[in-house]
Amino acid sequence: MGYDYALVHVKYTIPLAALLTLISYPLFTRLDVVRTLFIVTIAFVATIPWDSYLIQTGIWSYPPDAVLGPTLYDIPIEELFFFIIQTYITAQLYIVLNKPVLHAKYLNSPTTVPQWIKHGKIVGQVALAASVGLGAYLIAKEGEGTYMGLILVWACTFALFTWTITAHLLLALPLACTALPIIAPTVYLWVVDELALGRGTWAIESGTKLEFKLFGDLEIEEATFFLVTNMLIVFGVAAFDKAVAVCDAFPDKFDEPADALSMSLLRARVLPSSKYDMRRILGLREADARLAKKSRSFRLASSVFPGRLRIDLTLLYSYCRLADDLVDDAKTSEEARVWISKLDRHLSLLYKDPDSTSALLASQYAAENFPASALSALDMLPSSKIPREPLAELLKGFEMDLEFSSKTFPIATPEDLELYAARVASTVGQACLELVFHHCDHTLPAYMQAYLRNTARQMGLALQFVNIARDISVDAKIGRVYLPTSWLKDEGLTPEDILKDPTTQGAANVRRRVLNKAFEHYAEARESMKWIPSEARGPMVVAVESYMEIGRVLVRKGSASAADGTGRATVPKSRRIWVAWSTLMTA
């Protein structure tokens, strides 16, 4: 009896697992628990027969003074724990790195798969099949290649299967989401294994190995083992994620979302890719691209929402962003008013009757009156889950923007500022909350839902005030001043003065007043967010805190020192991640 192998876990694997748990804990969902249990169980069950065979045939051995003693099928308890802890570590790293990714947008049907992905899948299949063949040859040959052969036949057979069913998604995902969770744990475990082999914690029978060391005491077989097993783990979790993505992307095919953990998830796993609605997937890609380009804070926050809620929030934001861009990019105010009129007409058709006919009429109208690049955002607006009123009110906010001219500045008083912010931001906050009510299980009575709608509108005011305080210089370049004229007058300024120089001390003083109002609204609404349904509470708070952090930066540093290349104050990505993580820990 000894403690050497147990100490390997105490010193190296358990601390890393604990660190990853700490990082992933606030991001962890019920689906992540199932995802982890799924891959750990498969890895544990699949590895026991193989490892037991290695020990019983003398390829593997553990000195009696290096292990505690208890075994299962001759496998020491420490080795059994290694199956679990390695899988857990790699799976956690994969889950953390994949949180920001909207997997549904990477789905493809046979007709939309890029050629390089098709070729990559074939290359992978050939390489894995060849590895299985090489392994079989080494086993048949016996002698020094036996252990390597057993590794290749066992691991690459499983890898070939999971690669075949998941390669299109694996190759489409960013490398940081797939290669990194393979490479990082592999290199770490190489170092750990080299130390263990050097100490004699476990040993490989000399007649069954190739006698080639990658570095130090690390045998090439051990290096290969950790590489291929981490590949298996990532391939396996990605296969699970593909089922989740399919289930959440196509609510018309699956009644329940993936996080309901129903038979829908299994049916999604076996749905042929030829049945995918690629028009919807392409629309999701466009929507996510708008989110990435226009709102880094909300995109970061959206990554921790449940699957279908995340998708609908992305589609809602895409619609709002599109509408704003159509109006802002118009060459004349007359053209902008035409776009507002068309958007209003589209909403009228969409909400005319609560049936499919309305959607068809609205889609036909959109195709005839909007550019092709706008159609997916218009057609995929989740209108069945959102009332028309906040969207119609949003268009009134755009109309207020059109009142600006070289001599006209519609934000004359703080009340005008409140009205404008209510129309362009409170409306969006309410619409987001309606989606939360739709997607999340809750028993909130009607009066509490009304109370939370008011909270959402109040928080919308806070976020828009921060936006206005941030963008004084940017807005001045396009002839707009959202600072109340009455507040400017208190500083001896006019809107025209802001257009000429938005960086004066007087402008900074008014910015501070706007920020003070922002934090007043924030303080009034923040406590009430605790009543938001639990599945969405943390992500909603992250969305708020990520944006309010911009306000805090402005208060601390002012606009100039906090600005990016566009003249807007910004928060570094590392800071936004920290705000999101710390917020979720306490939400």
Automatic annotation (TrEMBL):
PROSITE patterns: SQUALEN_PHYTOEN_SYN_1 (PS01044), SQUALEN_PHYTOEN_SYN_2 (PS01045). The keyword Membrane applies. One of its GO terms (biological process) is carotenoid biosynthetic process. Its EC number is 2.5.1.32, 5.5.1.19. Residues 16-94 form the Lycopene cyclase domain. Gene3D superfamilies: Farnesyl Diphosphate Synthase. Pathway: Carotenoid biosynthesis; beta-carotene biosynthesis; Carotenoid biosynthesis; phytoene biosynthesis; all-trans-phytoene from geranylgeranyl diphosphate: step 1/1. In the N-terminal section; belongs to the lycopene beta-cyclase family. This is Bifunctional lycopene cyclase/phytoene synthase. It comes from Colletotrichum spinosum.
